[in-house]
Specification:
This protein has 414 residues and is an alpha+beta fold. 27% of the residues lie in helices and 30% in strands. The chain binds adenosine-5'-triphosphate and magnesium ion.
Amino acid sequence: MKQSQLFTKTQKQAPKDEVSRNAQLLIRAGFINKEMAGAYSYLPLGLSVLNKISNIIREEMNAVGGQEVFMTVLQPKETWEKTGRWSDKVVDNWFKTSLKNGGELGLGFTHEESLAKIMKNYIYSYKDLPVFIYQIQEKFRNEERAKSGLMRGREFFMKDLYSFSLTKEEHELFYEKMKDVYMKVFDRLGMKEKTYVTISSGGSFSKYSYEFQTLSEAGEDTIYIIDKNKKIAVNKQDFNDEIIADFNLNLNKKDLVQEKSIEVGDIYSLGFKYSEAFNLTYKDKDGKDQFVFMGSYGMSPSRLMGAIVELNNDENGIIWPEAMAPFKIHLISLGQNEEAQKIYEELEKNNIEVLYDDREISAGEKFADSDLIGIPYRIVVSKKSLENGGAEIKKRNEKESRIVKIKDIAKELK
Ligand code: ATP
Ligand code: MG
C-alpha cells in the first residue's frame, strides 16, 4: 500500500488521559483511536495486526479440532438466572440494558451459559462427544480499572473455546493438551520465552486452573516464579490458597522471585456446573443419562496486541515481530521515485506486504514515522543508496543498514 493513500497519520502526542505505553504508541502511530477509557476503534493498521493475531490463534484452535462459531452478544436475563450469574452481586462487571417491549438483557462478558444451551440441541449420545467449540468475538465488561490500554478493555476481543467431554478423564487429556497449544500460540507470537504456566486456584471441579502469565512491568498481576526452566509460576494472590498449598511443598515465600506479569490466557475445568444448570446430558453405552463434563479456555487477541507492544518497543516506537506486523516491509523513497516505484511493484508482485512511503515530506519525518509504526524491515532508496549500488536494508531493531542490489531485494525478503 502507498502511504500517501493511508488515511491515518502519525501524531506527536497521545491523548493526555492515556497512561498505558501500548495505547500511547498505538494511538500515536495510527493503529487505534481512543473513544474513551477501555474503548478503542481499530484503524487499518491496527485491524491488520488484530486479524493476524486472531488468525494465528484460529489456526491453532482448528489444529486441535476446534469448530468455530459466532454467538450473539445479546444475552437474555433468563439464561443467566439458571446459573445465578445474572446477579450483580455475583458478577460485578455486567453491562445491562432493557428491551423496548419489556425484558432485560446483558452484553455477554463470557459465553458458557449460551453455549451450554445451544449444545442441548446437538448432544444426545456418547457418540456426540467430545466436541470443542470456539469463537473469536467481542466481550463487554464494565471494568472499574481501564488503565492498561488494549490490555483491559470495556469492549475487547476474546477467543473463548469450550470443551464438552464424556468424563473427567477424557476432559483432562484435552485440558493438558491445551496447555501446550497455548504455549505454541505464545511461541508464534514471539512471547514464549517470557510466558509462564501459572498455577491458580481451580474452583469446585478441579484443584487447579492454569493461567498464562507473561513477564512485564506493565502487567497488573504478580507471580512467584517456581521453575524458570520449565516456566512454572504461582499467582501471588493464590499463593496461600489451600487448593494450591501442596504444589508449594517446600517453597518458602522468602526464596521466591516475584515478578509483575500480564495474564495472557487462562484455562478452567468447569465440570458439571453448566451442564447441570441446563440439563445438558448424553446417553451412555448403557442408555443411562450422564452430565457432560465441560472446560473453558480464554485468550484475548486485543490484550495480546497490547502485550506485544509492551514487550516490543523502544524510545522511538513499536518493533513488531514479523508474524503480526501490519506489513513486512516499509519502503521509503528519498527524493526520487523511479527505482522505489519499481521495487514496490516487484514486492507486490511477489506477495510481500509492503507499505511504500511515497509522500513528499522530509527524510527525518519519514524515518520518525517508520520507527514509530515499527514495520520489521526498512528499505531506503535514495540517490546515495543508488550510488552505493542499490537500496539500504535494515531491520527495525538494527542500527546499521546494508546495501542490497535492487534486483535481489524481492528474492532476499521472500
Ligand atoms: P483478569 O483477571 O485480567 O480480569 P479474567 O481472569 O477475568 O481476567 P477471563 O474471564 O478468564 O479473564 O477471560 C479470558 C481472557 O481474556 C483472560 O485470560 C485475559 O487474557 C482476557 N481478558 C479478560 N478481561 C479482559 C479485558 N477487560 N480486556 C482484554 N482482555 C481481557
Ligand atoms: Mg483469569
